[in-house]
Each structure stands twice: as C-alpha cells, then as structure tokens.
Design a protein that fits this description.
Two copies of one chain form a homodimer. Chain A is α+β, with helices and mostly antiparallel strands. The first copy, chain A, has helices at 26-38, 75-81, 137-147, 196-208, 215-222, and strands at residues 2-9, 45-46, 55-64, 87-93, 107-115, 129-130, 149-152, 168-179, 182-189, 238-244.
C-alpha cells in the first residue's frame, strides 16, 4: 500500500532532506520511523531535496508499506511518535497506486523570507535572512520580472554535473510581498535546479540594493551557464511551501 | 540620562525577566550588557515580570546612564552586540526624566497563542500551547465576556502574598481570534496579577472544551480568592505584546 505524506520540518537541526551516511537527514529520520514500525527497511521518496538548514511547510513524500502493518488512521500518530518534534507528518493520504512524489510533481512553490531592518527580532532567528541594507522594491520587482518565464537557468545553479542535463525551467511567477520589515519572494516554477532559489534571491537582492547592474541578470539568463552567479541567499530563509501535482 | 528600551525576547533559554542569583534571567543579561559598556553596575527596571518560558514582543524597561558614555545612536547596536540573539533591544528612546517603566505603565496587552489541531507544526514548537481537544468557540467567547470588566481576580492568581494586596483589576477586553488552527486570546488590562493570564487562559479553555461549568468562572470572580483555579496554560504560549503608557 502506498502512502502519501505531507511533511513539515524546521531545517536547522538536520543535514537537509536527502539521506546521509551520518543518518541525520530528514529522510533518514522518516525512514527510521517507518522501519521501526514495519520491522524492515522502508525507503521514502521525497519530492524535493532541500539543503541543510532549509525549511519545509509542504514537502511531499511517498512510501510503500504492507497493508496489514497498521490501520490506516494509526500511521499519522505512530510516525510522529517516532520522529523528532522538528519533523512532523502533517497529513497522510492514499494516492493512486502509480503516484510518485518526485516524478509526478508538476511544479513547486518555494518561499524566501528576508527581514529587512536594523534589528532581527528573536522570533525570526533562523527563519529569515537578516538583511540590513535598504532594498529598492520597485527595482526588485523589475528584476523579478526579468527571471520570470522560460529560461536556461544554468547561470543560477550549483553542482550541475550531478543533477539535470536540461537546465531550462519555467518560473511562472515570482511574487514579492512586503509586510513591515518582512519581505517575501514566492517562486512558482515547474522545477528548480540545485540552489536555484537561493541564487536567484541572492542575485535579485544584490541588484535591488544597487550593488549590481540588473543587466547582469540578462547576461546570466542568456549565457547558458558560461556565466554564473555566486550570490546565494542563506539557507534558513528558504521554505519549500508546496509541491504541485 | 534615562533610556527607554523596547525589548523582544524568546523566553525559552531564560529564567524569566526578573534578575536571578544564577544570572540567567533576561534582566541579568541586559544589566550585564550595560555594565560592560558603562564599567559599573547599571540597574534595569522592567515594566512586567514575565515568567520563565514566556516571550515578549513589547517589554519596556528603563535605565539611567551617564550622558557621556556613548553617543545616543550607538546604544542600540552596542547593547545588542553584548546580548544573546534571543534577546534584542528593538528601539531606544529618551523618555521624560521622571519616566518609570513599571510605575508609569497604565496597562498591558498580553497575547496567548493556542494551536488547536492534531499535529503541531515544527515552526510552532515552543511558541504556542498545543491543544488537541476541540474548543467550542462560542462558549469560549461567552466565558471571555464573563471575565471582562473590573473584578477581584484573586482566584486567578498565584503567590499572592508576595505581590499586590489589592487584587482588583480591570480587563477592558479579551479579544479572541481564530485563523485556521491558531487561536489567540488577547488580554488588555490595567494590570495583571502573578500568573493571571495563564490561569485565565487555562480556565477559559477548560470551560470551552466542556470539562468545567462556566458558572465556576463566576464563583472564582466573586469568591475574593477563597476559591482558586489551578488550570494554568503553559508558559511558552504567552507573549507580553505591549505596555501602555
């Protein structure tokens, strides 16, 4: 029986989503919880491989378990009882038999949070990028419009050799919201390269604070990876908000 | 020269506001920061003595320092540089010479946060009371109306001997808001007895989940302390939101 899990986690205590030999990735903890309940190793397939320190409100994963292991409604409390409190299974459903958390995903939404003020309030510690320089919002909006659409994002990716060969992605929207000192950038795309959201955010902010020319963004988008940005916004500001199927 | 400080803190790492012999209260940390900058002991007077684990977005304190210690605009960064990141001075102003953070306060606003759902998402860990039983909102609103107004709140206080003799207070409003699973109770009063907000919240919720008769609230309000409630909501859900002058 296949289970579809909606997962939330605080990224701070873990070495990212993807299983590590050290066993301290989010995937490891969830697999260990399943393994304890099932008595044998269970593999959990996640939709997105978030980096160390990156948070998730809406990670999706699937796992296959023997139907007679537990009554369906016991899985949620049983898994959570075996997980650290910084990882919570928020909901479990039964997807179609051929559902695959990663391959069935049509897109994702990532949110990047920036606290743009002199002092970072304690409740934002580890949850936002504390950025004290002024950010020009109209300029940020212009830059965000430049990266929207279908582009070769190789200039906004790290470790490309290890991941996809096709580096063309479609960002259907980069939505910017400002509420007091809190600036959020919401990226809705059909897929994301490694570190793409953090590199996009870092580079957009670099331009919007006046320290880089927005024309550089066009260069990065048209150079097919021959030019690359290295301005990655820090991991703790990033959230995997939703996986779209 | 008197400084008025607006202070925010995460209550989790500290033993409350008030100075402890162990030196790990919020007041201790701020006094230590001043002392380092001034070279001699400085006393900081806070408006409200929050308990261990209770948070603050809007604590107010004052301190007297020699006018030539530092230029006025250096105090904010200098103090924050000497404080743990879970304590932040958010703003410093120069009040009238006779301003007293505690005695000049005309009232306070406390907010209590309850996460009323089966699973507590990781980002609410230590920031809300995780309450899984259903809460009847109309009943909660009725109970909240009962405690509004001027009453002897001795039945909703702990350790009275050590604090005020006059236990009459005016709660001008108890505002209830529900946004998804997040239930907030906002208490606006002219003053609060020790543990009063947590005892009010615990008792209101006890009634609103149907485990106590709301008539009990009337008894508690009219018994002048001869009857007392012991249902205190846990500290990590409570926030000192604002001090009113």
């Amino acid at each position: 029986m296949r289970l579809k899990l909606l997962i939330a986690y605080d990224g701070a205590p873990f070495r990212g989503w993807q299983s590590q030999t050290t066993g301290d990735a989010v995937q490891d903890h969830i697999e260990q919880a399943f393994t304890r309940l099932c008595g044998h190793r269970i593999v959990v397939h996640g939709a997105g491989r978030t980096d160390a320190g990156v948070h998730a409100h809406g990670q999706i994963a699937h796992a296959d378990i023997a139907a007679d292991t537990l009554p369906f409604d016991k899985w949620l409390p049983a898994l959570n009882a075996h997980l650290p409190r910084q990882i919570r299974i928020m909901r479990i459903t039964r997807p179609p038999a051929d559902f695959h958390a990663r391959f069935a995903a049509r897109g994702k939404i990532y949110t990047y949070r920036i606290w743009n003020d002199v002092v970072l309030p304690p409740h934002e510690l580890g949850r936002a990028w504390h950025f004290t320089h002024p950010i020009a919002l109209p300029l940020l909006a212009d830059c965000a419009r430049m990266v929207q659409g279908t582009h070769d994002f190789a200039g906004f990716a790290a470790n490309l050799g290890k991941t996809e060969r096709d580096t063309t992605r479609t960002l259907s929207e980069v939505r910017i919201r400002k509420t007091g000192p809190l600036l959020t950038l919401r990226f809705h795309g059909d897929g994301f390269l490694y570190k793409m959201v953090r590199l996009l955010t870092g580079t957009l902010i670099r331009c919007a604070e006046g320290r880089a020319d927005p024309a550089w963004i066009t260069e990065l988008l048209t150079a097919c990876g021959r030019k690359k940005t290295s301005f990655a916004a820090p991991a703790p500001g990033l959230y995997l908000t939703r996986v779209l199927y």
